[in-house]
Design brief:
513 residues, alpha/beta, TIM Barrel, 2 domains, 10 helices, 24 strands, 25% helix
């Protein structure tokens, strides 16, 4: 692990105060009857196993840790006291030959338990062990529908313990209670083998407790179709706002301007509609016309969006009076907004990445950072291909020398690919992480291009996973320079790709709990 300097620790603290931190998710164990609604037909034992003289029965051993249904195997369902929404669920079960049971998620959606080891052929999809049991309609010619068979038969022989691991996403509802998204089995493993992936549940399955979908509901275990025992049952509630990509996702203004979106108002309205958190602003962007940062901030305020940064380019040899007034004005406008000034640096005299330019750069950045700090604004060095400050290593080096708690770096995916190799990605992220304030992304090739987020041959998902694993929770911006065409469609496509990346990461988060 990279050893953090005193200043990088200070920057991390400053960053945490600005961006917040996430909390761990608690695992809830359900292996004691106290976690379930009172049901005298079920009991706790130490273990369950196939009866030595009757393969259609289970025998038990005294103790704790295992829950079994009644001797007549006609027990009412065991229902948890606690109710759940999105969740990672682990259940271990055992049945004898020819037995039948099920696990009801939210009391609404049954995952079938059946002796399917030797013969997984059933009369309808979803009736097999691990199947998502079908819905039922007596008015249909074929009454069962929307059942889902496992991708493979991963069952073990009866009399052996088996395991379900389930990642479940509950149905979602708007403020008026209207369902806006179906429940989903994100992933389901039987005995470690993936048997379902991304299966939408159009409604409750047969035998559900209630006729309609729920935001939250109990876990229930079926006990009236034969002998069954359960052990090591636990549920980890999943909090979507803390999983996947929790970073604020904004658009850089280079990708929000076309003939239909020339005004700050039209741009902000579009970003709001598409779900972006705000904008990264280039004060000298010719496409902005007469609209300045002050006007943009007014529109962002109206829409409750945020300015995540204001971008400037400074030449090392320029006199301070040429760039300082505009930067200082921008800092004052951003006061109290927990925003960032991005600075790219060029030179007429210094070779690209030359350390000999560091002294001049540090003097410039330190002066700006001191002014910014008084206004609660950070400064992020912006590596730019073909500039003097062109590599992420250059930005980190200068940030370290500045020795200011509010000086960090931007990791720009496009410019990094123009100056480095994809194989070095994790190393580059690790170097940047102690000073990383902002990340910018776009669809791209391995050698650098700017496209919508759903295009390009480079694996942007892998990059996002790398920054998440490194612990980056700050804002991520979308590059749009030079894409052209309909900016609304570009932004829509990119937002859709962002959501898909987030869902993949959330599933990975859940798997790793």
């Amino acid at each position: 692990m990279r050893k953090m300097t005193k200043i990088s620790v200070a920057l991390a603290i400053w960053f945490a105060l600005v961006c917040g931190t996430s909390e761990a998710t608690e695992k809830i164990t359900l292996t004691d009857l106290s976690a379930w609604r009172s049901n005298p037909e079920w009991s706790v034992v130490g273990d369950a196993f196939e009866h030595p003289r009757n393969e259609n029965l289970l025998s038990v051993r005294e103790g704790t840790g295992t829950i079994v249904n009644g001797r007549k195997a006609k027990s009412p369902p065991l229902v948890s006291i606690q109710e759940f929404g999105d969740a990672r669920i682990h259940v271990e079960f055992i049945i004898p030959k020819s037995s039948n049971s099920g696990v009801f998620l939210q009391g609404q959606y049954e995952i079938q338990i059946l002796d399917s080891w030797a013969d997984s052929n059933v009369s309808y999809p979803g009736g097999e062990c691990g199947g998502i049991y079908p819905r039922w309609d007596e008015t249909r010619t074929v009454k069962p529908y929307d059942g889902h068979s496992p991708l493979v038969n991963a069952s073990r022989p009866p009399g052996q313990w088996q395991t379900f691991d389930i990642i479940f996403r509950a149905a979602m509802f708007d403020s008026e209670g209207k369902k806006i998204a179906n429940a989903k089995i994100v992933k389901l493993w039987l005995n470690g083998t993936l048997i379902h992936k991304d299966v939408e549940l159009t409604g409750p399955t047969r035998g559900s407790f209630k006729p309609n979908d729920l935001a939250r509901g109990p876990l229930a275990l079926q006990g009236d179709h034969g002998h069954v025992a359960f052990r090591n049952i636990w549920v980890t509630p999943l909090e979507p706002d803390k999983m996947g990509l929790t970073n604020p996702f904004f658009a850089m203004d280079t990708g929000v301007v076309d003939e239909s979106h020339k005004s700050a108002k039209s741009q902000v309205d579009m970003l709001k509609e598409l779900g972006y958190a705000g904008i990264g602003y280039w004060e000298r962007n010719p496409a902005n016309g007469t609209a300045g940062l002050a006007e943009m901030l007014g529109e962002l305020n109206r829409a409750n969006l945020k300015a995540f940064g204001a971008y400037f380019t400074i030449k090392l040899e320029e006199p301070a009076e040429k760039y300082t007034p505009l930067i200082e004005d921008s800092i004052r406008l951003l006061k109290g907004r927990k925003s960032t000034i991005w600075i790219a640096m060029t030179s007429d005299a210094q070779p690209k990445s030359a350390i000999s330019g560091d002294e001049q750069a540090v003097a410039i950045i330190s002066r700006i950072a001191d002014i910014a700090n008084k206004n609660g604004v950070a400064v992020a060095l912006y590596p730019h291909e073909d500039f003097w400050l062109q590599k992420i290593e250059d930005a980190v080096r200068v940030a370290e020398k500045c020795n200011r708690r509010n000086v960090g770096v931007v990791f720009n995916l496009y410019h990094w690919l123009k100056t480095d190799k994809p194989a070095n990605m994790e190393t580059a992220v690790a170097k940047a992480m102690p000073y990383l304030l902002v990340v910018t992304i776009n669809g791209t090739t391995e050698t650098g291009s700017i496209e919508t987020l759903d295009r390009g041959t480079f694996d942007v998902y892998r990059f996002l996973r790398a920054i998440k694993q490194a612990g980056f929770t700050g804002p991520v911006g979308l590059q749009g320079q030079g894409i052209g065409g309909d900016v609304r469609e570009n932004l829509r496509r990119s937002m859709q790709a962002w959501h898909e990346f987030s869902q993949r990461l959330a599933a990975e988060d859940a798997e790793n709990l």
